[in-house]
Amino acid sequence: MNSVAEIQGAVRAAKRVRVRGGGSKPALSLPNCQDDVQTLDLSTLKGVIDYQPDEYTFTARAGTRVADIAALLVEEGQYLPFDPPLAERGATLGGTVAAGLSGAGRYRYGGIRDFLIGIRFVDGRGQEIRGGGTVVKNAAGFDFPKLFVGSLGRLGILTELTFKVFPQPAAFATVAAEFEGLSDLLDALDAVTRSAIDLHAVDFAPAEEGWTLWVRIGGLPTVLQERAQALQSVLSAGVGRPGRLSLHREQEEESLWKTARSMRWLAEGLGLVRVPLTPQRVPAVEETLSGSNAAARRYSVGGNLLWLGWPDESAPERGEQDTPQDLHTLLLDLDLQGIQLIGRARRGKTQGNGAGEENPLLGRPLQNAFLRRIAVALDPERKFESW
């Protein structure tokens, strides 16, 4: 699809529609088993329409790659502070919004919904609708931009997006702390998040021996060293012994967070599931996952988000344990919701062959009566309802 007019025509002619962008989240754009679903490729609907560095805003087509936007912004010393993930894998602006994805930088500045200020989209009747605006101080009309964050393509097809951006800090530094157990790490997490230090990102993950906590700060190089020392002082009480703290700067530091954004820590054969939670629920999640040797995980945004690597349904046979169906049940038991981004998962079983329904939504069902009413208004024939 190279134009909005083509998308409008396709929507009007099709019985059911699904959208594919850069392919970085294939679980959300898998071909449906139903023959009446038409997949629209928006990867060619790309390009920057307007960029105003002095106003800290840009407008681009939905198929524009996040990596291309990052390269444009860095020339003006600006960036998207919510740290959009999967950019190195080809993520697009439209797909990132539709999936509601924010990275580690969300801890300091808020998520993608806080930076999206305007959209254009095609509804179920094939009409193009505008919501929000192209300037930061805009309060006119219905707040469609926030509704479309995490909508998973069920409200309409995004064609154009406007974001606000921020100046990028002159430098970053990251303190990594190693802990023998999860309890020690959570105590340190509580101490550092309650401190007066301005934190940009806080992630943690299990390591070969114990746990590792990464805390990122940013600012002027002249004061960054002093702030890093203050951060190390806060963390030193929990690490148990010297040598378990390390300071990372410049390229080494950027590589740590690039690995996190691109999910390069995800081993081959593992799918990727996004699970919102709170730090208080981490111990229960870890207790449940303790019997799964195949699971890989990284907690982000100070423990408010879990990136979970889980054996992929399409990977070679792994036996009875650690199947995607197990993950659906596990999340149900924990009363959590998960969205499969990479890989394939089945939930439930059908009679006959015992295969399950392919569905990227795992765990507790999404329940939002208001959103359902909006969906009916925008898409009365339910052309976009894929799951």
TrEMBL record:
GO molecular function: catalytic activity; FAD binding
Domain of life (superkingdom): Bacteria
Annotated keywords: FAD, Flavoprotein
All copies of domain FAD-binding PCMH-type, residue ranges: 1-168
Name the UniProt record assigns to this protein: FAD-binding protein
